[in-house]
DNA sequence: CCTTAAAGCTAATGGCATTAGCTGGCGCCG
DNA sequence: CGGCGCCAGCTAATGCCATTAGCTTTAAGG
């Protein structure tokens, strides 16, 4: 028994490899153990159970995405920062559709690492919007809209929801345009119908 | 054996009941059979397998959502139609979070009922945008953006992604405002950076 | 060396999907 | 009215997966 030398991080690495190759649904303790060259129950020495593994994967992916976004935002501000954010967000989702999906599907309510990573991500979105001079609750509203737009687009694009032949780059440009112009014109009053 | 009188539709009904009560993850053939008062393998007389049941559920939900949207759009046009669309879309997702999630998670590539229902839904979105005088590919781009925004918001809201205390109605109003203004100002040229 | 904790293993359980093959009730045709 | 066939339901069996329990071995450190 040559000692596989596993660790929680190593287990997550293997899970990510499976996700990249066969999608999130293929992540099973048996599959991970197979890659590790280890019997399935051995994984329990590193991970509490499958649910925890999924959480760890989710956190890892969120942090990875956060890193990409932070890097994209470095030294940029205003419209340029927003454009860089959206570009980087979409690029990550398209380049890593499995990971992106794995991130989304994790259970939300938790006070642990999951929530911390999500908060960090939200903080980055807020950062991308700095420079638009938003105050108070408007920051929250704009952040939510940006998340909704970016996530919605990413889901549709990575899930193959765009069947028609039109260029998705142009679509993304329109989405970006909507956010920009919507943030520029603060008009918000009679819209309270909602 | 009193003849349970099942049918594919009845099986889907039971699955929907489970989804409404315990979420999409609880939909298992064993659970459905339990509700039907039938042994698990009996379900295979009505449904090819679990995957097909999920597809049928997805189609049913898409059609249900499509009905709500169509009804909301009746007799409306322009901004009013768009507002009604978004309102109805969000209302459905919030009122039926389990069903909404079940719809999204189904496998996309197919030439069958799944694709037909999805196309119908897209057609409704296109209809909601009629009146903005969009031509050619712009129709597609606007449709995709509207879908992305509505879906992204619905996912975030139903998954509890909005942790902060700000009013989600106000956020939705901003999202609506972004779409309106973005459609109004056709500016799209240098954005080709994407 | 020898101890000990961690890392692995095997065995066992229970849930689930799925397949095969049997059976009985009901509609329909004569 | 009686028989026939089909269809819906059943039981049995298989295989995969997660998870638990308890044993064994490795390797690190005194």
TrEMBL record, chains A, B:
PANTHER family per UniProt: HTH-TYPE TRANSCRIPTIONAL REGULATOR RUTR (PTHR30055), TRANSCRIPTIONAL REGULATORY PROTEIN (PTHR30055:SF151)
The keyword Transcription is annotated on this UniProt entry: yes
Record key words, sorted: DNA-binding, Transcription, Transcription regulation
A GO term, aspect molecular function: transcription cis-regulatory region binding
DNA-binding region, residues: 28-47
Protein name from the UniProt record: TetR family transcriptional regulator
Superkingdom assignment: Bacteria
Pfam families: TetR_C_33 (PF13305), TetR_N (PF00440)
Domain HTH tetR-type residue range list: 5-65
SUPFAM superfamilies (alphabetical): Homeodomain-like, Tetracyclin repressor-like, C-terminal domain
InterPro entries: Homeodomain-like_sf (IPR009057), HTH-type_TetR-like_transc_reg (IPR050109), HTH_TetR (IPR001647), MT1864/Rv1816-like_C (IPR025996), Tet_transcr_reg_TetR-rel_C_sf (IPR036271)
């Amino acid at each position: 028994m040559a000692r596989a030398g596993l660790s929680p991080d190593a287990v997550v690495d293997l899970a990510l490899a499976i996700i990249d190759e066969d999608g999130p649904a293929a992540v099973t303790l048996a599959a991970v153990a197979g890659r590790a060259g280890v019997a399935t129950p051995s994984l329990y020495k590193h991970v509490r159970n499958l649910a925890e593994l999924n959480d760890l994967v989710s956190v890892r992916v969120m942090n990875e995405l956060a890193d990409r976004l932070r890097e994209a935002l470095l030294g940029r501000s205003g419209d340029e920062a927003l454009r860089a954010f959206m570009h980087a967000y979409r690029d990550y989702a398209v380049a890593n559709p499995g990971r992106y999906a794995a991130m989304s599907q994790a259970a939300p309510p938790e006070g642990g690492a999951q929530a911390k990573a999500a908060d960090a991500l939200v903080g980055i979105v807020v950062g991308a919007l700095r420079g638009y001079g938003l105050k108070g609750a408007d920051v929250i509203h704009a952040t939510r809209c940006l998340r909704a737009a970016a996530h919605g687009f990413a889901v549709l694009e990575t899930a193959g929801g765009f069947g028609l032949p039109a260029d998705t780059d142009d679509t993304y440009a329109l989405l970006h345009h909507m956010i920009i112009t919507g943030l520029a014109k603060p008009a918000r009053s009679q819209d309270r119908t909602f």
